[in-house]
Amino acid sequence: MNAGYNFASGPSGLPAAVVERARTELFARADDGSTAFEQPFTGEAFGATLAHARARLKDLLAVPDNYHILFLAGGATQQFSMVPLNLLGDASHVAYADSGHWSQRAIREAGRYAAVTIAARYEGERPLAAPPLSPWCLPDDCAYCHITPNETADGIAYPALPDCGAVPLVADVTSCLLTAPLEVARFGLLYAAAQKNLGIAGMTVVIVRDDLLRRPAPLVPSSCDYRAQAAQGSRANTPPTIAIALAGMMFDWIAQQDGLAGMQARLQRKAALLYDAIDASGGFFRAPVAPGHRSPVNVRFELARPELTTPFLDYAAQRGLHHLHGHSAFGGLRASLYNAMPEEGVHALVTCMADFMRRYG
Amino acid sequence: MNAGYNFASGPSGLPAAVVERARTELFARADDGSTAFEQPFTGEAFGATLAHARARLKDLLAVPDNYHILFLAGGATQQFSMVPLNLLGDASHVAYADSGHWSQRAIREAGRYAAVTIAARYEGERPLAAPPLSPWCLPDDCAYCHITPNETADGIAYPALPDCGAVPLVADVTSCLLTAPLEVARFGLLYAAAQKNLGIAGMTVVIVRDDLLRRPAPLVPSSCDYRAQAAQGSRANTPPTIAIALAGMMFDWIAQQDGLAGMQARLQRKAALLYDAIDASGGFFRAPVAPGHRSPVNVRFELARPELTTPFLDYAAQRGLHHLHGHSAFGGLRASLYNAMPEEGVHALVTCMADFMRRYG
């Protein structure tokens, strides 16, 4: 049986090779008889798992030595609170670029802890696009500027990074980390929930430059204090052990596929195939995002006749193409092409779209 | 090969039957082709996993209908912050009983958010005991009173619950939840990290009475707002999906072993066997906690000759008896007898102790 293809925005599928490896390795018994589910946090076996994941991620992204890599429990929404609580310091302002749904969620949460300057504003008019990249007016007294380079729900990607001068750039890279090379040194802090390109739900990676850890807010929960987590190797509170083990397996798998350059080349092929099929459908399918701003990883599209949306979702599911519905805020369709999605999955989707169009067009 | 016995204070071992079930079920493919690692949070397959875990836990503990059961990412330390942030409301005071290491950690964290009254003080003199259960003077303006009925590091258990009158009783039951029946209605809130008696690391269960959810603090992180988590069925932020699946399997396993009465009977046999062996060793081994206050689940003991501690740990490990060292704050020895520890494990430990005593006594 074909296992089908999972186009969900997250949790994503995992590569078949990672699933097979997990099936073996999570249940292998260490010298003390424990499986990966049962290992003490301070013991050798889990210590090796944690060190492996950290070293592999450092390699893949060429993380400079003055950055800490943290593996924290929970999802990215928790970091919407923890970023201002950890980085505000003596500043009174933070800046956020509004680029759609998830950046707006981040802005709302940050506004509970600091005065938020909107560095750039999302227009929201079709064709949809990332906010203009200049001029961004940042207040002098600004702890950081936050962006969402890939908007998972809106299907929008920044065409380039903004220039924020000396203000540290913070980015929610939940849906795009490890889909392409990234110059970590351009950022003060990066964070990404794992369940899209790095493994499974329950863990978020934070990569943070060490000079930003000087002044956590007095009220940051101890378990979420980046400085304490850095000092204690992500073990200041119960670490999400299985999610860390799975992330290590994903990092190995990515390295085996020519690393981030390999991921990027494959992603570009997958995205081009799908966007070309949409654009070549004579308006039967259409993409609401302007070329140049289209996310390669979350392909948002729709049917010109909205009443065909549910029939299309059913038609696709019958062919093993699952979870193609758009974000609940927008409806329509979305195909997420995360690292684990094989090119054959996109070929199958494009064929399915053509067949559906022949039947209903 | 004997897989050995894991006496660690956490993560604990899992019952062999649960490990086998996980090996099969986590990798079974749902209708959409996804394994448990890959299922969308809002989809049917994970929805069923979550509903199953919640229903089973409600059954096991006979949780009244006016309580919410939450499955949250992270460990119990995070709840040290979240309890005051969620429950303080308009009150200015909270009360905490000091009973040893982990309650002191909880007190320190609560003191960052509220004025803390110490309702009862730990003496810390041998023989060690829980703090006196009366009189507890609670301020009128007191949001809740927090206890740690089982001190995992100190090896101390309360002989009974205090009477806090109308003040809601909050308890960190991380190391004892589901080891014996518990009258939930006596508590306003209970919380327990999963990796001791309920499964694996990365998840904490919170059981909270609904009238306590009225007034979260203005600055509680949205992802940690109990009210929002209750309203959204523990999906206000990325849920720890695999830890929830494993907890459901543990709940089933406990139900199959005669439920909490069965767990309690077995635990009492295990604890009696070990404490009797310690007390009958003529002072070669000794337990620092007074009878009547000894934790059945975290048996703290030591060698009269401390220089024998490391030889004993090595001797036990060679026989497959692992992680018997005490908490790093205290040294000595500790055997954690969580739900998954079979009675044969304790028999093997008692035999090992007798053999060691013959050799070194």
From TrEMBL, chains A, B:
Annotated positions of the N6-(pyridoxal phosphate)lysine modification: 196
Residue ranges annotated for the Aminotransferase class V domain, each copy included: 5-349
InterPro entries: Aminotrans_V_dom, Aminotrans_V_PyrdxlP_BS, Pser_aminoTfrase, PyrdxlP-dep_Trfase, PyrdxlP-dep_Trfase_major, PyrdxlP-dep_Trfase_small
Cofactor note: Binds 1 pyridoxal phosphate per subunit.
Subcellular location field: Cytoplasm
GO terms for biological process, alphabetical: L-serine biosynthetic process; pyridoxine biosynthetic process
GO-annotated cellular components: cytoplasm
Catalytic activities: O-phospho-L-serine + 2-oxoglutarate = 3-phosphooxypyruvate + L-glutamate; 4-(phosphooxy)-L-threonine + 2-oxoglutarate = (R)-3-hydroxy-2-oxo-4-phosphooxybutanoate + L-glutamate
Assembly: Homodimer.
Name of this chain's protein: Phosphoserine aminotransferase
The organism of origin for this protein: Rugamonas brunnea
Lineage of the organism: Bacteria, Pseudomonadati, Pseudomonadota, Betaproteobacteria, Burkholderiales
Gene giving rise to this polypeptide: serC
